[in-house]
């Protein structure tokens, strides 16, 4: 599967969603669940409910780790979170 570039590109379009569309999608799902009588009835049996807003957290971004291979060390591009290119040419 990893060797099929087109498949990986298509898969990434579903798994790597930008923050704004991801937020909107989650809010749409919450709204659908909260307004559906069937969902509300089912969730009330478990004494559950979804809040109308997502939890807002403060966070920080950590520096990328240095990855040590037998012959060298690399620091990957944090925005991409992918070190497979850097590690692909290592000697094991």
List keywords for this structure.
elongated; 4 helices; two-stranded antiparallel sheet; 2 strands
Structure in a nutshell:
The chain is mainly α.
Strand and helix layout:
Layout (H helix, E strand, L loop, with lengths): L4 H11 L3 H17 L1 H9 L20 E3 L4 E3 L8 H5 L4
Antiparallel strand pairs: 1-2
What does this protein structure show overall?
This protein folds into 2 domains: 1-49; 65-92, no CATH class. It is built from 4 helices and 2 strands. It has helices spanning 5-15, 19-35, 37-45, 84-88; strands spanning 66-68, 73-75. Strands 1-2 form a two-stranded antiparallel sheet. A hairpin with a 4-residue loop joins strand 1 (66-68) and strand 2. It is elongated. The two termini are 23 Å apart. The mean pLDDT is 84.
